[in-house]
Amino acid sequence: MKAKAYGLFYLLLTVAAVLIVLKTLHWLPTILQKDMLRKFDSIEEVRAKLNIRDVYVPSYFPENIVWPPSEILAQAKPYPAVLIIFHAVKTRDAALVISQAASDAFSADSLIPFVQVTRTVSYDLKNRKALLEVGMCGNAEPCSRLSWTENNYRIRLAMKAPPFELIRIAESMFR
Amino acid sequence: MSISAFFGSFAGMYVAQSFCHSIIASVIMDQTLRAWKIDDPLVRQRFRLTVVLFPIFSYPLYQAINPDRGSVLFRLDALFDITRWLNMELWGVVPFGLLFLCLLAITSLIFLFQEMVPILKHTLESKTMEHEGTRREPDPFIENASRALSIDKPEVFVVEDDDLLIFSTTGRNPVIFVSTGLTVTLTQDEMQAALAHELAHIARSRRPLLLAAFFLRMILFFNPVALIEFRRVVRNEEKICDDIAVSLTHRPDALAEALKKFYPCRETPEPEELQKPLFAPIPLEEYSHNLQLDGRINRLGSGSPSSAGGRWFYLIMAFLIVAAVNYFVV
Fold it and tell me: What is the DSSP letter of A174?
């Protein structure tokens, strides 16, 4: 019995050691290389520290969205990418997600996951060819998504709202 | 396709994550065996097979459970994200991803030349030997042992060769091949022990778990951990067959003596050779071969082999820990 208890203790220690080593190895690259994906406090900080000049931020926000953004993630390597997450005033869930990345591999669609896409149309966004998707998120909530290419960046906006507000937000990015 | 784009694709993530998952599985399984001092080769083999097989399915399974697992936010708060390392650059020039790909390429070559080619060669050679060897006289020991193992009595062929060789082919009509060198070198008891070991291999091949594991393991041909762990599985198989052989002959000493004769000749060095530095003369392959024989001989010398108890509880517990930890390793 004593040997079994000792065995369990030994294994738990091993698991704890494995978790500590993994977490350390996860954190270490952010120290060694500053331009990897990490959190930032403001858009200005992203521009200054990662030297990404073109960060596309809308000037219009509906009232149900909390300003400033709740999370800003960005990286310069292996390719420049910025992810801005806004929460809803009432629920404090992600309500608007704006991403821009120089690669299609960068995806943040899961933050506002569509249960069903009911309509996909091509949309003329101030002379840019954009793709508008309209559908439903969980709890039959209307959701919409707009994406287009701008100066080597793929920009994607996703919002828990009908497309009208999303289009206004997107158009305000070019004023 | 750039290196970072490759590791961002499904194939790249599969390669990278299965590598991480197998390292973690190997460490936790190893420590579980150590924690409860599990020596039974049959049980140890189950642990090792878990390390080999789990990473084949882990990544697609986790993604099916939670497609969000690949997202930027999940990766940011993960326990460990290997892409952070793969995207890092050594001295700002060489990406770690490239070094990682080199490691995978070397492992693939080792797999090809040390596993695939020898297997094909062995298959072809055993077919040739079938026509060359002479049938050995019927042996009541083989008959009794085959009955005890519930297998059809295999034919035993003697092949003209001065080297010490004994091996068996499995399949529908299994055959044991023995070299003339071995028949001269081994005593009758030792020969019976060696034949019993081969009969054990034939009996074990009736449950082709190892073969199935090998075919599945081929999917991870690039994975160095899977390569090492599968070799450990094979070594365990030898120990399992040793235990079966001892249960048939009740002579562990005879099997140990027979194994000692498989040491290469340099095992008893000339007096002047003893003066040479230890690391110089023995090639790595020979050293590894001797080490394996040492392990088996010591086991046989240390008393009766341990019983093949279930120990499923420990295996399931270790597996659940591995599965839970690896879920957060992306």
Answer: G
pLDDT by residue (tens digit) across A47-69?
Answer: 888 888 888 999 888 888 888 89
Chain A residues within 8 angstroms (CB to CB) of chain B: 3-4, 6-8, 10-11, 14-15, 18-19, 22-23, 25-26, 29-30, 32-33, 36-39, 71, 73, 77-79, 83, 103, 105-111, 113
Residue A9 CB neighbours (<10 A): 11
Task: Say which range, A49-58, B145-154, B162-171, has the weakest mean pLDDT.
Answer: B162-171
d(CA A65, CA A124): 25
Q: Best of B80, B326, B330 to disrupt the A interface by mutation (most A CBs within 10 Å)?
A: B80
Q: How confident is the model at residue A175 (pLDDT cuts 50, 70, 90)?
A: low
> Are the Cβ atoms of A25 and B329 closer than 8 angstroms?
no
DSSP conformational letter for B37: T
Distances (CA, A) of B53 to B108, B214, B273: 17, 9, 44
Q: How confident is the model at residue B269 (pLDDT cuts 50, 70, 90)?
A: very low
Specify the 3-state DSSP secondary structure of A132: strand
Look at residue B126 and tell me whether its pLDDT is greater than 90: no
Q: Which are the contacts of B12, defined by CB distance < 8 A and separation ≥ 6?
A: B5, B6
For B281-308, give one letter per residue: b (16+ CB within 10 A) or e.
ebeeeeeeebebbeebbebbeeeebeee
Run of H or E including A123: strand A116-125
Alpha helices in B250-305 (DSSP H): 252-260, 284-301
Give first-to-last CA distance, chain B, whole Å. 21
Closest of A109, A108, A63 to residue A90, by C-alpha: A63
User: Among the listed ranges B221-230, B256-265, B298-307, which one has the minimum average pLDDT value?
Assistant: B298-307
Of B131, B181, B123, give the one whose Cα is nearest residue B157: B131
Look up the ipTM and state it: 0.80
